[in-house]
Amino acid sequence: MADLRGGDLSRLRQLNSLTAIRALRETGPLALSALAERTGLSRPSTKEVVDELSSLGWVEEVPPSPGTMGRPARRYRFRAENGHLVGVDIGGHNVRAALSDLDGRVLAETRQPVEPDAPLDERLAAIERAVSGCLTLSRRTPDDLWVLAAGTTGAISPDGRISFSAAVPAWTGLDLAGRLREMFPCEILVENDSRLAALAEARRGVARDARDVVFLHVGRRMGTGLIIDGKVHRGFGAAAGEISMLPEARWFDAPDHLNTSAAVPPGTPPEDAAGHTLAAARDGDPVALEAVGRYLDDLAVGTAAMVLLLDPQLVVLGGGFSRSADVLLGPLRDRLERRCIRTPEIRASTLGDECVVVGAIDYAVEHVERRFFTPEAGPLPLSR
Questions:
Q1: Exposure pattern of 108-147 as b/e (b: 16+ CB <10 Å)?
Q2: Cβ of 266: how many Cβ atoms within 10 Å?
């Protein structure tokens, strides 16, 4: 418990309340005695805190389990459903949206297709349709939203402007945060999609036990997210990890090896081309294997550069192509071993195409935690 140095009782109550909320969020429903043990408070003080949080709408008693015998101890839980968050993945071909409660539990998901060369207003309209679809599915309204976090390609300034986007040129210079505020009456956050994907891996994916990670965001385009000492690394100008901008890395055009392979049947939609090549390589097709090899040659150059620079504990293969990890991981590891002093462990993401939208939810959860549930935050508000 912090030293108050002045006996400010209201501050003490706030800190006790935050301690109780943190315990309930981390472990789920708890009886008063168990909550008192976890918070270090006396049982009477814990009861006082729980009563106050209940009056504010942040905590409620949990009904006994069916069939419980005797008089069970009262248990209490944090009411994460008091607020709702939205994560959005603004991709080149699809806009994905997910709605969650304050703990990041996803309640609804939608997807809207969009062409890579779609006009700006059409892409923004797809965002609005995707978010509105989540609200409809969950029977919520825009007024129920606390935070909307959006992930998109490109270099993102701290105020939510897209300073540069090679994948979607019309995006360059857009005040995306400002346009989203015109659509939704809540706090707006905008971040690079690969960094959000890396955050998702660190919070709920295969990188939860790693402190230093290179996340490879591989799909129809290439990107990276870096985690250093357990934190997503943005760099001085929020441009860290943009290895695809280096022509010598050959990342920008690397997916073309898979998209234009002779293993792709004529008439295949562009969004399915790489999948055909990877599936054929899995079956041992020599033409497809050669195309995959060329793709991995390019992928290994930029990956090796980051491994040699950062010496990470882990490399995560994520994004849409992570579904073909059985085809890609072994050969990628071989190429890194020929280039790196120490080859880190390489794992495949289990989040797949959902990595960005899940990371956007986690980004919004972190924002809410800082805003309301840390000792530096202001007084707890009434629940909405």
A1: bbbbbebebebeeeebbbbbbebbbbbbeebebeeebbbb
A2: 4
- Ramachandran bin of 39, using left for φ above 0, alpha for ψ from -120 to 50, beta for the remaining angles: alpha
Which is it for strands 75-78 and 213-218: parallel, antiparallel or unpaired?
unpaired
Q: Which of 326, 321, 215, 317 is nearest to 274 (CA)?
A: 321
Burial class (CB in 10 A: 0-12, 13-18, 19+), 328: buried
- Return all residues near 272 (Cβ < 8 A) that are at least 6 apart: none
DSSP state of 241: T
CA 334 to chain centre: 29
> What pLDDT does 378 receive?
63
Structure tokens at 266: 């004529």
Q: Would you report the helix, strand and coil content of the chain in percent, each value rounded to 5?
A: 45, 20, 35
CA neighbours closer than 13 Å in the CB half-sphere of residue 66: 0
What are the structural domains of the chain? 9-78 (1.10.10.10), 82-197+356-372 (3.30.420.40), 209-350 (3.30.420.40)
**Cα–Cα distance, 135 to 221 (Å, whole number):** 30
Which residues are bridge partners to 90 per DSSP? 95, 152
**Cβ(196)–Cβ(277) under 8 Å?**
no
Mean pLDDT by 10 residues, the chain (384 residues): 44 85 89 91 90 90 67 85 95 93 96 89 95 96 96 90 83 93 96 96 95 94 94 90 89 91 84 90 95 96 96 96 94 97 96 94 94 74 58
pTM of the model: 0.89
